[in-house]
Amino acid sequence: MAWDLPDVTLNLRVLDLIGIFAFSLSGALLAVRKRFDLLGVVVLGCVTAVGGGSIRDTLTGTVPPVYLRDETYLWVAILGAMSGFLFGPRLERFDRTLSVFDTLGLALFAVSGALGGITLGFGPLGVVFVGALSGVGGGVIRDVLAGEVPQVLYRRDQLYATAAACGALTVYLLHGQVSDLLGQLLGALVVIGLRWLSRRGRVRLPVRRLGDEGS
């Protein structure tokens, strides 16, 4: 099935807006937990929201990034951050709530990154690379600014970049086999499913520890 450019553009916009809101809310919730003031919450939320999209746009040659050419993206990011500031203190389990929105943003940006790579004719490795970086970019920036080690570097029990890469690969493999929307949905579900399984200890990456060889 051929990709129709207007449909691709619309799908990217919808995925972006939902992903931006989710990532912005995840950044804001972390900022609230860290006791940032209002400005700090909005800044962390917005930077988290546009980070993945900026990476995707840069890798796919869309300069300047979409959010600078269409302020709707920034308004959605601000809305997500303000929602986190207003309702964050009422949420009893920050970790669980943060993980839900972080996973949603990861999935949507990984899928939109893969979609952008496909439209430019990238091969499987290029699509996976763009999708994975688009997915993890916002979360990495959020964690660094909040003074935490990015999950992508050490949380083997909670697949992050691997989940994003698998979601992007799913979109690539389904290209031309199913409808555009279904391929994107299945790719996002792969990311969410892998994150869910890894959080329950059913899927994890191996870790090489010092002393494994014996003495």
From TrEMBL:
Belongs to the UPF0126 family. The keyword NAD does not apply. The chain crosses the membrane at residues 12-31, 38-56, 72-88, 100-120, 126-145, 157-175, 181-198. Coiled coil: none annotated. This is Putative membrane protein. It is a multi-pass membrane protein. It comes from the Bacteria. It is found in: Cell membrane. Keywords: Cell membrane, Membrane, Transmembrane, Transmembrane helix. Residues 14-87, 100-175 form the Glycine transporter domain. One of its GO terms (cellular component) is plasma membrane. InterPro entries: Gly_transporter. The keyword Cytoplasm does not apply. It comes from Deinococcus peraridilitoris (strain DSM 19664 / LMG 22246 / CIP 109416 / KR-200). It holds the Pfam family Gly_transporter.
